[in-house]
Amino acid sequence: MNFHILTLFPEMVMQGLMTSITGRAVQQNKIGMEAVDIRDFTQDKHRKVDDYPYGGGAGMLMQAQPVYDACQSVLKRLPEGRKSRVIYVTPQGETFTQKKAGELSKADDLLILCGHYEGIDERVLEEVVTDYISIGDYVLTGGELAAMVIVDAVARLVPSVLHNDQSAETESFQGNLLEYPQYSRPEVWHGREVPSVLLSGNRKEIEKWRTEQAVLRTRKRRPDLYEKYRLLEECKAFLMKQKLLHIDMIECINRCRAEVLYWDGTELLLRETQSGVLFHTKETVGKDSLFAKEIKEEQKGSVCLVLHQKEMVPCVQQLLHLRVSVTCLQAVCTRRERLPVRGLYRADTLETLSGCRIRTLEEEQLPYVVSHYEGELSEEYLKDRIAAGQMKGAFCGEQLVGFIGMHDEGSIGMLWIAPEHRQKKLGQALETVMVNEGLERGEIPYGQIRPENQPSIALQEKLGLCLSKEPVYWMESQ
Ligand code: ADE
Known about the structure:
The chain starts with a strand and ends with a strand. It is α+β, with helices and mostly antiparallel strands. Among the domains are: 2-155, SPOUT methyltransferase, trefoil knot domain (Alpha/beta knot); 176-221, Trp Operon Repressor, Chain A; 224-332. It has helices at 10-17, 20-27, 64-77, 98-104, 122-128, 144-155, 167-170, 203-221, 223-239, 247-254, 292-298, 312-320, 366-372, 379-387, 426-440, 454-463, and strands at residues 2-7, 32-37, 50-51, 61-62, 84-95, 109-114, 131-134, 188-189, 192-193, 258-263, 267-272, 278-282, 304-307, 322-332, 357-360, 391-396, 399-406, 412-417, 446-449, 466-467, 472-477. A hairpin with a 2-residue loop joins strand 16 (391-396) and strand 17 (399-406). It is globular, with a radius of gyration of 25 Å. The strands form five sheets. Strands 10, 11, 12, 13, 14, 19, 20 and 21 form an eight-stranded mixed beta sheet that branches. Adenine (ADE) binds at residues 89-91, 134-136, 138-140, 143, 146.
């Protein structure tokens, strides 16, 4: 991910961003950062970049030409096929949120245009800007601070920018709860004691206390967020009545990636925020379902909808013209303890008994994965999964001989082992690694298995995963 900040004050931006975590990430080549001085692109002999607004009014406007040329100077040097976005930071934009940061973190290049004076000539904005973003309802003297806020929030979501890559997901805001209060030494300060439960060493009690505190704090300080949290808890209680069947929806909520599109107490439509996949379930399947309107509104491009009742399939086929692309059973790791690794691999080195090493895949393995994966996934999707650090492979020396991954909506899948390496427990080893990593992150790991895939069902059973009785139905645009 590369950040290109177009500004009249390059030193201000670079001084701010080249320190601390973002600065270290640049030095370690995890992200790229440059400030492009818009003044370098003016054709005015006095290096002027602003002029009076037509029609009169207070202040000066940044002119179109230098802004346009500065922007083109960056866009022209980007290699072909890169996903770039041009952001104009302005109080008139959509309000920046954690969700927007997540969306922007998927781009390869972010160009951020900082305005000054009374703004920028509208014509150049119309030509180049893809996103208008405000960092809040107040007016700053220029866009630089807003650009720095956006870079910081997006950079920390880039894999490996934070040392402990778990914290990007679990800290403060990803969910709908605020962070619980934290304490460090000394035990008593100004007569105030650290809550005794934190000194008890009882993990379970500590977790319980922290959740309670987070809920209380959110209710008091952010009633708006608390309302969202309460709604999701209500939906989760409903889904838990059939835990195995609904594990995809439950985990979507647990992993803080759920947006409720429709809920009336008996019927639920969720959107998984990273993948855009929609999940639907209904307690009693009657004729009229009310959620079609919500889906149609969502249906800008193609839709991917997972149904949890067979009876809904014809209705959805008719109403939304979707077809069933695949039917899957849910395979759920219902236990909290890690799966045993004995007889599979060494826990410290991830070396399998047959001498293979398990490690995260990198982009250079993409051609191998694309040419061997037997499912219907596109090259772009597999590339994205690898780039997200969500695929693992078993390597015999330097040769990749099998792989597995986590889908963008959160299920484990994409398992494939080279024929000459089957019967060596490599599939079992790969899935065990994925499940145990999920457990460590506090997730309930699950996969989705086609009912006719007997070898995979046997593998799930061997690992001790529980299968749902009924399948789910993945529906896609025709
Ligand atoms: N430029 C000036 N004020 C701003 C704000 N609140 N957000 C983004 N850009 C700005």
